[in-house]
Design brief:
There is one protein chain. The protein is of the alpha+beta class. The protein has one domain: Arc Repressor Mutant, subunit A, CATH 1.10.10.10. The chain contains 6 helices and 5 strands, in the order ββααβααββαα.
Length: 116
Amino acid sequence: MEKETYNFNGTEYPCCTSVTMGIIGGKWKTVILFHLIEGELRYTQLRKKIPHVTERTLSLQLKKLEEDGVVNRKVYTKKPPMKVEYSLTTFGKTLVPLLNQIGAWGNLAVKQSAKK
């Protein structure tokens, strides 16, 4: 009997939850996405909101989120200096309820931890 697998952007996953975690998992992706719920942000604005992430990591995570179709990158080159803005795509906006629930659960976990 063959196991069902899920394919997303050329990567094979063993189950649907692993697809989700493949897209938003890791230390910084959900943080980036959570800040983009507010709307478009320039790279420097994201850096200020997430001071503990390195520039290299932020760039790599944004690139991966863009490749996965979750984040849109818009470059403005009309007048210097060049400006780059990031925003959630329509597909990325479908993550907003999930991201809000992840945030709410994080708050609950912190409160539970404080009770110990």
